[in-house]
Amino acid sequence: MRGFGFASTVLATASFFTSSVLAQSGSVDPLVIKGSKFFYKTNGTQFFIRGVAYQQDAGGNGTVSTGGSNSYTDPLADATACARDIPYLTQLMTNVIRVYAIDPTKDHSECMSMLANAGIYVISDLSSPGQSINSDAPAWNDDLYNRYTSVVDALQNYTNVMGFFAGNEVSNAPNNTAASAFVKAAVRDIKGYIAQKKYRTIGVGYATADVSQIRVQLADYLNCGDQSTSIDFWGYNIYSWCGDSTYETSGYQARTQEFSNYSVPSFFAEYGCNTQGTRTFQEVGTLYGKDMSQVFSGGIVYMYFQETNNYGLVSVDGTSTPSKMPDFTNLQTALAKVSPSSVESNSYNPTNTALQACPTLDSNWDAPASPLPPVPNEDLCSCMQQSLSCVIKSSVSTDDYQDLFSYICGQDKNACAGINTNGTLNPDKPSYGAYAMCNSTQQLNWAINQYASSQKSNSNACDFSGSASSQQAVATPSGSCSALLQQAASGTGTVTSSPTSGGGSSSSTSSGAASAMVNVPNFNFGLLNLSIYIAFAAISGAAMILL
User: Fold this and answer.
1) Residue pair 434/387 in contact by the 8 Å Cβ criterion
2) What pLDDT score does 59 carry?
3) Which among 378, 397, 457 has a CA at the least distance from the CA of 189?
4) Which residues lie below 8 Å from residue 462, measured CB to CB, with a gap of 6+?
5) Quick check: 188 pLDDT over 60?
6) Fold match between 6-347 and 378-540?
7) In terms of DSSP H, where are the helices of 419-547?
8) How far apart are CA 309 and CA 263, in angstroms?
9) Do β-strands 161-168 and 121-125 pair in parallel, antiparallel, or remain unpaired?
């Protein structure tokens, strides 16, 4: 890196304001990653993020506050709002916005064009409020794969798309670190999908909460193993600098040291603590200053819209003209004073290219580095479905699936081995079921069929109090189904064939949200829990027939 002499300051200032110059020419230069830094593809100037989180009803952890539903407002599909807000974003010298959920079926061309003309890039989360990798009931299945790839399809053609987040604060405590394996699988498959579709190279990263107990393990885990399963950039949602703090006492110094040898770009995916009232943004000078700019590529301030959490830079009432909050002026002033030291791509030779060592399994870390959850494969799931003779009735609500899973897996863990999502059930030999990536209906059908097949002497084996029924199974699978089912074996095999679909919307279950949230129980269900479950089910009128 160059020092803070006059020449380097001029260069840094030039790179810090380059996006607006490009915008005036009516084009936007795609961003590329080299080592741990971002660069403009054409001129090789280093890119620092001056970002703002831009989505109404986005909660403090980057979630969209909709009470658990899948209803949200796509900020990139509202051209009127974009035209209203972009002038205010440019006053803050914004060159990146982060959006938390977009509707891939809507048209984003007007907003994306206006943003490009203003020199503003976009980082989009791939999830939505109702379709995401759940911390406590993780899944990586057909429905989520289709949701994520649909977002990629919708945005990949815009050159001002900077990258995608495959997860946001999924593991936020030691007791849900197993979910990180599903994030790593999502990173693997979205990177693979982008390559398979021959799209331009677009980074896939992760946004993390700042959780001290798992901070190092999580960063190492998502940057370990193979390049194909590792993140392309790391986003930190960090709120530790509050009021009159310092580089040392805020923890910024420690975080900078921790990421000094990280092999991919790192930046603040959210920042701006408000516990001390009106924010003065003292941390801005440090983030873009000599201590941090060699490690972190800037950050994204949370957030543009004023909500009940009081993080807003502006207040917007309906379609009215935005009213600037005190935080707006303070951020504008702070950003105007910074000029980070930069380096040109052709003179930058990264030495921190090695991936991290994968963390070992312990009381604070429960995600195996290998194997990862299987690649979602609708062809395999469809073939499996055709091979079954006992399936759930279509009239059964997905709300009842959890009870059925709990009963079957509690009675016979072997019936659920093929849909096992607990990768460390056997710590000495981590594994996932071959059908663990199918949607919830297909998974339940597999479990019901396996359980019923084991009860051959019972004529009511395929009944489950009227919840299941028989179907004509395909006796001899042919073509690709034959090969896929042979690889899956009894549900515990490894399928190496790649999926042929993606980017669509699955119709195999009545609710994509439901399939993402229904969890196949841990096999440590136990007889006591089983008896309690049966008693409760009987009281509620939903008791299963004990076979």
Assistant:
1) no
2) 56
3) 378
4) 389, 390, 448, 452, 468, 469, 470
5) yes
6) no
7) 440-453, 479-488, 512-517, 527-540
8) 35
9) parallel
Torsions phi, psi for 423 (to 5 deg): -65, -20
pLDDT beyond 90 at 357: yes
Q: How far apart are CA 349 and CA 253, in angstroms?
A: 24
CA pseudo-torsion sign 191, 193, 198, 202: negative
Angle CA(84)–CA(131)–CA(169) in degrees, nearest 5? 80
For residues 284-311, one letter each, b for 16 or more C-beta atoms within 10 angstroms of the residue's C-beta and e for the rest, the string is bebbbbebbbbbbbbbbbbbbbbeeeeb
Partner residues linked to 315 by β-bridges: 323
CA distances from 182 to 187, 374, 437 (A): 9, 9, 10
Contact 300, 271 (CB under 8 A): yes
The predicted-structure confidence for 279-334, as pLDDT tens digits, reads as follows 999 999 999 999 999 999 999 999 999 999 999 999 998 778 999 999 999 999 99
**pLDDT score of 520:** 55
Bridge partners, residue 215, by sequence: none
467-498, pLDDT tens digit by residue?
999 999 998 888 899 999 999 998 989 888 77
Residue 189, helix vs strand vs coil:
helix
- Cα–Cα distance for residue pair 509/139, rounded to 1 Å: 15
Whether omega for the bond prior to residue 303 falls within 30 degrees of 0, making it cis, is: yes
Non-local (6+) Cβ contacts of 433 within 8 A are: 374, 416, 417, 418, 419, 420, 421, 491, 492
- Sign for the pseudo-dihedral over CA of 276, 243, 254, 58: positive
* Topology of domain 378-540, CATH: Methane Monooxygenase Hydroxylase; Chain G, domain 1 (1.20.58)
End-to-end CA distance of the chain: 70
Domain boundary assignment for the chain: 6-347, 378-540
DSSP H or E stretch at residue 301 = strand 296-301
Lowest-confidence segment of 131-135, 145-149, 332-336, 536-540 by average pLDDT: 536-540
The phi, psi pair for 539, rounded to 5°, reads: -60, -40
In words, the CATH class of domain 6-347 is alpha beta
Query: Looking at the DSSP assignment, which residues form a beta bridge with residue 33?
Result: 38
Q: 């949607």: which residue's tokens?
A: 439
CB 484 within 8 A of CB 497: yes
Residue 29 has pLDDT above 90, yes or no: yes
DSSP code at position 346: G
The pLDDT mean for the chain works out to 87
Query: Cβ contacts of residue 538 below 8 Å, gap of 6+?
Result: none
Evaluate whether 506 touches 142 at the Cβ level (below 8 Å): yes
Residue reference for tokens 């020449």: 7
Residues with a catalytic annotation lie at: 169, 270
Token duo for residue 205? 């990263």
Least confident segment among 103-117, 306-320, 345-359: 306-320
**Is 91 a residue whose pLDDT tops 70?**
yes
Instruction: Look at 424 and 201; give whichever has higher pLDDT.
Output: 201
Rounded to whole angstroms, how far apart are CA atoms 499 and 133? Answer: 20
Consecutive H or E run containing 237: strand 234-238
User: Rounded to an integer, what distance in angstroms lies between the CA atom of residue 125 and that of residue 206?
Assistant: 9
